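In the design runs reported in the main text, the only information available to the sequence generator was the tokenized backbone. The following block is the verbatim input for one such run; it is reproduced so that readers can re-run the procedure and compare outputs position by position.
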């Protein structure tokens, strides 16, 4: 009896580090067993699967894009794929459906009786939190803050209030070219005693992770994050 089609959530490396360092043999076997993939961008997914050992058969695979431009009707149409077999979901980097539009397909699978299988892989959010020394018992991921300076500063003040009131770490990310503008706002509007973690290029050789008070960060006047993937966390001190 044939196994019912499933949705496999396939993690991607966070950079160009060796595949064996960040994904398991199970992930590689699963990817190799599939013919149909839903991906955020086809070009990135082809590169990831080539690194996973599928280089010789990339052109025979079937790719369907699901990103911020995909309509709900188009996502619903992807359910037809499961009539032909299991499907792999791949994000641009890290874990599918976490800070990723692929969550829509996962939800639809649950609503339609299609099993969802998560596979272990790197998550910049969780790795930043676990290495921050901040509250990992209670935390909130806030996605991207506003690109407008005044609105962003207002959001930062609100996040600080929430962090102090609820004793809850606040995580957020930014488009790499705005990292330093956001960080400048963090140091400008938050209280000197607030703890701030900057976690950039996680899992790469250029990885940088440091948590310090706003007061101490202000003394590092030459520090620049630059244009690289980064997770920011603000919280009260646990000590």
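Verbatim output:
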């Amino acid at each position: 009896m044939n196994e019912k089609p499933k949705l496999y959530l396939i993690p991607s490396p966070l950079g160009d580090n060796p595949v064996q360092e960040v994904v398991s043999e199970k992930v590689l076997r699963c990817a190799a067993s599939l013919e149909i993939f839903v991906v955020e961008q086809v070009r990135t997914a082809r590169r990831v699967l080539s690194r996973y050992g599928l280089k010789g058969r990339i052109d025979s695979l079937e790719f369907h894009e699901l990103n911020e431009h995909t309509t709900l009707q188009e996502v619903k149409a992807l359910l037809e794929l499961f009539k032909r077999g299991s499907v792999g979901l791949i994000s641009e980097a890290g874990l599918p459906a976490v800070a990723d539009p692929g969550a829509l397909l996962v939800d639809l699978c649950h609503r339609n009786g299609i099993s969802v299988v998560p596979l272990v892989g790197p998550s910049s959010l969780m790795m930043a939190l676990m290495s921050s020394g901040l509250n990992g018992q209670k935390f909130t991921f806030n996605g991207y803050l506003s690109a407008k300076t005044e609105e962003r500063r207002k959001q930062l003040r609100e996040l600080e209030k929430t962090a102090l009131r609820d004793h809850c770490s606040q995580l957020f990310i930014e488009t790499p070219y705005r990292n330093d503008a956001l960080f400048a706002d963090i140091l400008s509007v938050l209280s000197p005693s607030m703890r701030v973690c900057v976690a950039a290029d996680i899992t790469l050789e250029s990885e940088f992770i440091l948590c310090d008070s706003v007061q101490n960060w202000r003394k590092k006047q030459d520090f620049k994050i630059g244009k690289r993937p980064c997770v920011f966390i603000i919280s009260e001190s646990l000590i």
